[in-house]
Amino acid sequence: MGSRRIAIINGxxxxxxxxxxxxxxxxxxxxxxxxxxxxxxxxQGITLEFFQSNVEGFIVDYIHSCAGKIxxxxxxxxxxxxxxxxxxxxxxxxxxxxxxxxxSNIYKRExxxxxxxxxxxCAGQVCGFGSYSYILGLRALLELLDETERE
Amino acid sequence: MKKFLAISGPNLNLxxxxxxxxxxxxxxxxxHAKLRKKAAELGVGIDCEQYNSEGDIIDRMQQVxxxxxxxxxxxxxxxxxxxxxxxxxxxxxVPCVEVFMxxxxxxxxxxxxxxxxxxxxxxISGFGANSYVLALEALANLAGV
Lengths: 151, 145
Known about the structure:
The structure holds two protein chains of two kinds. Chain A contains five helices and five strands, in the order βααβαβαββα. By secondary structure, chain A is of the alpha/beta class. In chain A, helix 3 (56-65) packs parallel to helix 4. Chain B has a single domain, classed as 3-Layer(aba) Sandwich (Rossmann fold), CATH 3.40.50.9100. The interface between A and B is medium-sized, with 24 and 25 residues.
């Protein structure tokens, strides 16, 4: 269990959290959210890796680099969720369980945000609970890994 | 003590007896047991119910504000077309979390659209019985538990 290694991936503009559109995304910065996730990781006895990029290709590179090194992803792909076929293919290619998370309830927002290109290659989706979406996503992933281990 | 309501919609009484590859193995009774266990851990109350009739769920929703701090709702197929359920959720002014056991986005196209998602606080899908448990944790967190 202690050797379990999970990657938390954040996509474009999430480095601006707490500084833009606070009404939608809340007032916490990405660093504060990562601290909350780190705290949950310590509670669960796992190792976390954090990655944020505004560049689609860098996220694709990072996902590829995780093969054989980490056991799963919690990913907030930001706007890439809704149009990045390359990101979807990268997640599909590495065949590691991924949980899609969103801070806001994407279904309350513009119609172009209702479609997720990555949802079909993710194990599941958590959206609408602010920074707590990441915590729930991480718990979902760990439970899924436990289940897979039991099988 | 904060009290929450978990409602499951049509056909979910058959869990554990149908298409187990999608819905995994848990029966609804087992899911309710998991919810009660989590509620006890969190120090909150939970009532677990299932209805096959849309109208019965609407009747229950209308009683929610007087009795519960939030709802975990797996509307089943109703999620994809029940505008009357949507209205019932929208008018109750108590947080409702939409859950699905399966990853609806990996299934038939008609399941990709939920008519209740935007009147719910958020959605949790794809984690089998654990979707319900995570939704209860989300509600407890919202309620400051």
